[in-house]
Amino acid sequence: xxxxxxxxxxxxxxxxxxxxxxxxxxxxxxxxxxxxxxxxxxxxxxxxxxxxxxxxxxxxxxxxxxxxxxxxxxxxxxxxxxxxxxxxxxxxxxxxxxxxxxxxxxxxxxxxxxxxxxxxxxxxxxxxxxxxxxxxxxxxxxxxxxxxxxxxxxxxxxxxxxxxxxxxxxxxxxxxxxxxxxxxxxxxxxxxxxxxxxxxxxxxxxxxxxxxx
Length: 213
Description:
elongated, alpha/beta, 8 strands, 6 helices, single chain
């Protein structure tokens, strides 16, 4: 009798899907007018999200990732601790004044630009457990009803978050660099934030230059 099972290629594909990254940088842009790589020393970091707890976590992790690459940072929450609404947000002039006073030469902003949700059905599984100790037909007949174990299917909601990062030069106010990323079904904000900020700062440093010596 032939044994029926998954072939190795199928198993490999399933493992890759299961272990694939939950978030990634999908694209980036560098200002073509910037011909010399800027050498920034201090970043003003602000996460433009409405949830103050999320803002605090993302700004904290961004600062840690940037400082690990040798940059100094100042957090937006340290200067503007309030979560602003459209009506109460400070003017551009107020922000730039405080950023310059803090000694920052570049601004790094993070914002959530979109999110999508999709409901999918996860089918249940059925497991067959063979047993050889039931004797003749009578023993088998009584056992057969309990030889199949089923797990019911269920619906789950997949969520994808689209983030955008932008770097601005404080002196010229020009946008220097931008990157878009996707986060697929992030489980916890702390884990997502650490992964995202590490990816982002590594990509940013690689594409727009190193710090000043």
